[in-house]
Amino acid sequence: MLSTSQTGGCSAKLPAGLLNDLLSDIPMLKNERVLVDIETHDDAGVYLLNPDTALIVTTDFFPPLCSDARTFGRIAACNALSDVYAMGGKPLLSLNLTMFPAEGIPLEVLHDILLGGQEMVNEAGAFTMGGHTIVDAVPKYGLAVVGTVKPEELVRNDQAEAGDVLILTKPLGCGVVIAGHRLGMVSEETYQKTLLQMQKLNRQGAETMRKNHVRCGTDVTGFGLAGHACKMALASNCSLHFQTSALPVLPEVMDLLKAGCVPGAAFKNLDFVRAHLQTAAGLPVERKMLCCDAQTSGGLLMCLKPDVAEAALDELRKGDFPEAAIVGSVQEGEAGVVFE
After folding, report:
1. Torsion angle of alpha carbons 259, 264, 265, 271, nearest 10°?
2. Which of 91, 98, 140, 280 is most deeply buried (CB count within 10 A of its CB)?
3. Cα–Cα distance between 321 and 75 in angstroms, integer?
4. Burial grade of 151 (CB within 10 A; 0-12, 13-18, 19 or more)
5. For residue 150, what are the CA distances in angstroms to 34, 46, 56, 155, 242?
6. Helices 264-273 and 174-182, packing angle to 10 deg
7. Strand, coil or helix: what is 165?
């Protein structure tokens, strides 16, 4: 199954800059009940259903990034559910999106993909309502997801304010590890840890954001930390400063980057952010490329007020995210991202 695709996971996304150009002249209806649409390139769309409830609507699917079908299904579903959590919501309904060849791969593989995906939907407490399957030479799987959120608890990517503290919940580098595994450059222990991380729901992160009245955040997926942070900075008209030495990183990743194991998606992400990116003098190139590495089912990047940041971090570390870290701050200045 893995041999049928050249790219898998979120590295298969179209480059962000190209996507922006494609959407720029497509007319879309506006409505006062649409709280979030594609204008700020947020994680999902949000529609105000009534004064107490808003719907979060999203979809995500991609080709395999590992050879085990059940694990692939779990990762793809976890990744799709993440957009709801990134906006402070709770998943409610899901639809399977499946592409699979009519011959060449046993149908039992498709069963295992769907089984893995359903395990994650069940863990999220959502309900599968059906789905759609078409024939395609390269298997692809994901979900369309509807979630709910109280309007006053909605987390957007355009609400960052100077003085906010930046917390990242999951280590970076899964794109590098997957590439390293394909090349036989990474240990099995690190590879398995990476697969397990991509199967971890961002549910506790959403709970932490609601508890601490976070109003700005995003998940870190295909456009890398640099790309998603840049979108947040531009949407919020502020500057996001990162201490790259504080970033949590998966094992072996920095050595892989130093050895030249840099996935192609990282270069595409760098091209997207280049005009809005500043790097400190002497910053090692491997740190810059780490920040551009495409993440699949990555963690949450959240903006917290300084008076609650340490308590929130402690809560995350004691729960599902032991490697969560304070990684920078929001500052006034030209909209963009600074890596130091």
Report:
1. 100
2. 91
3. 17
4. middle
5. 14, 11, 10, 10, 30
6. 150
7. strand
For tokens 């932490």, what's the residue? 208
Structure tokens of 184?
């036989």
Q: Render each residue's pLDDT in the chain as its tens digit; 340 residues.
A: 555 555 666 677 666 667 667 777 888 788 899 998 877 776 789 999 999 999 999 999 999 999 999 999 999 999 999 999 999 999 999 999 999 999 999 999 999 999 999 999 999 999 999 999 999 999 999 999 999 999 999 999 999 999 999 999 999 999 999 999 999 999 999 999 999 999 999 999 999 999 999 999 999 999 999 999 999 999 999 999 999 999 999 999 999 999 999 999 999 999 999 999 999 999 999 999 999 999 999 999 999 999 999 999 999 999 999 999 999 999 999 999 999 9
Q: Which amino acid is at 333?
A: G
Please tell me which residue in 10, 216, 291, 292 is annotated as part of the active site: 10
10 belongs to the catalytic site: yes
- Angle formed by the axes of helices 264-273 and 224-236, nearest 10°: 20
pTM: 0.93
